[in-house]
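So, who can interpret the following?
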Amino acid sequence: MLTTKHIVVGVGELLWDLLPAGKQLGGGPANFAYITSLLGDEGIPASRLGLDSRGAEAIHRLGELGLSTEFIQKDAQYPTGTVVVEVDHAGQPRFEISESVAWDFLAWTPQWQTLAQRADAVCFGSLAQRSETSRAIILKFLHGTRPNALRVFDVNLRQNFYTAQVLAQSMELASVVKLNHEELPRIMRLFEWEHRGEEDSARRLLSAQNLNLVCVTRGTSGSLLVSAGECSEHPGYRVKVADTVGAGDAFTAALVHGYLRRAPLAQINETANRVGAWVASQSGATPTPKPGGLKQNLDEIG
């Protein structure tokens, strides 16, 4: 039986993660689009690269990953983005993100307008909105989607690249918000609301921002999904962590995949944890599944 192949867009930063073991293509939109494609939908990254050697190498790498480069803009003035990533003994990354790079200067094009209109789902974060230029384009992209398109705000607080205003406006345009257990109390403080526990705070966001779903990830301890009429908790999967770079993006990809198919909340939660754990057990954010395909790799988790 044929299943619907959805068009799922990751819009925002595209960059090189400069890891201790070498550089790997990264940025939430590309990581998200790659796992989306592995899961069977059409994952499309929309970003901007410099007209430099790193930009050319990124285009080549996207091709190797099987991702479209049609919506990757080229910038003759600003360089391709980089992030210095240091990984601690527990596999947790710390990021030093270069500024005034190509993805800070996204532009509105007819191609992006058409993509926004075609998208079944779009995922965006706060980092790519650190510049007024890119923030305006991301908001325009979201406004250009169909009313029934799924809009996922994957918060991703990095350094000081966010404000309460950016977070609030992003949530107002989203149907789903995903954040981690450390970000949730910080956001509650920014909004000047009391944080009385994860489910209570998730429900406050759900109601105040008129959301369909709030997801709180808990690292190795699983996740909490909260909708108006339901709540699902998952304890997570224990794996030997290589590094956690991209694990959150993988979780979001699986969340979107299940949500678009109207899967039960508990099933979405289970699959998203499994996919996130698989990526964490591999090096980098875009691992290649072993022979047998992604499903067999995921079956080995747990």
Summary: The chain has a mean pLDDT of 93. The longest helix spans residues 265-280. The chain has ten helices and 13 strands.
